[in-house]
Structure formats: C-alpha cells, structure tokens
Amino acid sequence: MQPETPEDIADTVARALAEDIGDGDRNAELVPEGTRVRARVTAREAGVLAGAPWFDAVFAQLDDNVRIDWHLADGDALRPETPVCDLEGPARPILTGERTALNFLQLLSGVATATRRYVERVKGTGAAILDTRKTLPGLRSAQKYAIRCGGGVNHRFGLFDAVLIKENHIAAAGSIRAAVETARRLHEDLTVQVEVENLTELEEALAADADSVLLDNFASHILTRAVIMCRRHRRPNFAKVEIEASGDVTLGNVRDIADTGVDRISIGGLTKHVTAVDLSMRLTRID
Fold first, then answer.
1. Given 38, 117, 156, 166, which residue is catalytic?
2. Assessment of whether the complete model's pTM goes beyond 0.85
3. Per annotation, catalytic residue among 204, 216, 244, 263
4. CB neighbours (10 Å) of residue 268?
5. Pick from 50, 185, 202: which is nearest to 193 by CA?
6. All domains in the chain, ordered by first residue
C-alpha cells in the first residue's frame, strides 16, 4: 500500500521551481519552441524509490502536456540500469524541470533506501525504525513520506502533536516529575515522552507515569536492564510504557539494540545525513 501523500507537495514544488528558474530558463530558450522529446529516467544504483508525487508535480506545474509513465512505484526496489519512468512532451518544460524533479526523486529515494537498510537489519525483533525532527528545513513532510516508503515509522511531526521532554526542558522545569505533571495539565490529550540518560532518570520518568521513555545513548547491556525495568513497571492505567532507543545508532549496532527488546529505534541520520540515489535522465528529440 502506498503511503499517504502530504498536502503541501504543490507548495514545496512551487518554491523549488521558483528557486531554480527565477525570471526565466535561459537554457531552455536555446531549443526551438514546439520541439517535442521523449525522456527516460534510469537508476544507476540499487535503492528504494520515493518521491514520484513531487516529480509529477514539477512537470504538472510547468506544462500539463508532459506525460509521465511510471515503471515503478514508490517503495519499490531500484536496480542498476532499471528504467524508472518515461516522459514525453514539449522539450522546454521537460528541460526546465529536469533538475528540480530529479533532486526530489534522488533525495527522497536516498532517505527511503537508508531506512529500508535499517528495517531489514532489525527484521524479526519487533522493533520499529523511526525518524526524528532532524529534517532538512522545508522538506519535513517529504522526508517523512520517504521514511514510510522505506518501511519506517514516523515519530511526531513537530512540536505541536506530542510532548517530548528533553534534558533542557527538565533543567528549566526543575525535575522530570514537574515537567510531566505540567504537560499532563496543559495537554491531557497528547502523548508524553521523557528522554533519559541513565537508569536513575529512567526511574524518575517511570515514577512520573510517562507514556514513553527515550533511552539516549544507552549501552546495549544497560538497555537490557532498562527494558526489564519498564516491563516490570505497573502504570495506574495498566498501559504499557513504550520504550524507544536513540543515539549513535548505526547499521553495525542496530540489531544489538533491537535485540534488547525496545519497541522503537529512532535515527536522526535517516533524514539528516542523506546520500542521494544516483538517477539519470536522457532525452531524444521526436522529429
């Protein structure tokens, strides 16, 4: 099933096109008006496809006479030299939109590809791979869509849809309990998560009845103890405390982290340290 597409695609694409085109494409003007072309986007390396709605929106905004036929869907595996999609239409808008459209497709496919690698590594453990708010400015909804294409799960979208109490909030509020109690009073409908850095802070978060705990930079053997503590804790409403691990997570250690029994593993690098997937577009003139 395809992930639900964000509502801000048109606005995101419009800003990207304005950034690139400015007051006119001096390069496309070199091609006679009315010239028609066919073009093909091809993968040059393995990966996971993501970003087709943004690619489509680029050409829809430039000229709705550009036709795009997709050979793959978002979430599908890419193989080297595999055709991704074909385009046909007026040459000028295809040339103008090429870079912007590929930028979206390459970037988001890179996010989906990295996510899929982590998802595959923890398969069978029950741990979900999550993103964070460490996204590229203006592209959060797009990158979170790509996370879902790779098989990951989205964390909160922003500061408004859940409460995550971190070390600076605790310092400013005075204690974990004070921060949690204030969050409950102000936003009783929101999930309250507490980030902890050691087992003492974990005890405080559990005693304060946090919905979820974020275990930051715990060694695997300490994570195991933390999971046992959380599983033994009995909340007043008998709900399970959700356990999330984060901090310095790599492909080399993510399986060990998952094997401790945590519910979720969040990885900022999925959206912050992006390696784009190599895609190319080649066109031919229709005489």
1. 166
2. yes
3. 216
4. 17
5. 202
6. 9-119+274-286 (3.90.1170.20), 124-272 (3.20.20.70)
Active site residue 29: no
Structure tokens at 113: 């590809």
Catalytic residue among 117, 134, 184, 225: 134
Q: For 150-253, where are the alpha helices, taking DSSP H only?
A: 167-173, 176-186, 199-207, 220-232
Q: Is 45 a catalytic residue?
A: no
The one catalytic residue in 99, 231, 240, 285 is 99
Active site annotation includes 272: no
pLDDT by residue for the chain (287 residues), tens only, comes to 678 999 999 999 999 999 999 999 999 999 999 999 999 999 999 999 999 999 999 999 999 999 999 999 999 999 999 999 999 999 999 999 999 999 999 999 999 999 999 999 999 999 999 999 999 999 999 999 999 999 999 999 999 999 999 999 999 999 999 999 999 999 999 999 999 999 999 999 999 999 999 999 999 999 999 999 999 998 888 889 999 999 999 999 999 999 999 999 999 999 999 999 999 999 999 97
Taking the C-alpha atoms of residue 194 and residue 216, their distance in angstroms, rounded to an integer, is 10
List 195, 204, 211, 263, catalytic entry: 195
40 is catalytic: no
- DSSP secondary structure letters along 103-162: HHHHHHHHHHHHHHHHHHHTTTS-PEEE--S---TT-HHHHHHHHHHTT-B---SSSSSS
- List the one residue out of 5, 155, 123 whose CA is nearest residue 74: 5
Task: Please say if 240 is a catalytic residue.
Answer: no
Q: Determine contact, residues 108/135, Cβ cutoff 8 Å.
A: no
SS3 of 9, please? helix
Q: What residue has token string 């310092």?
A: 171
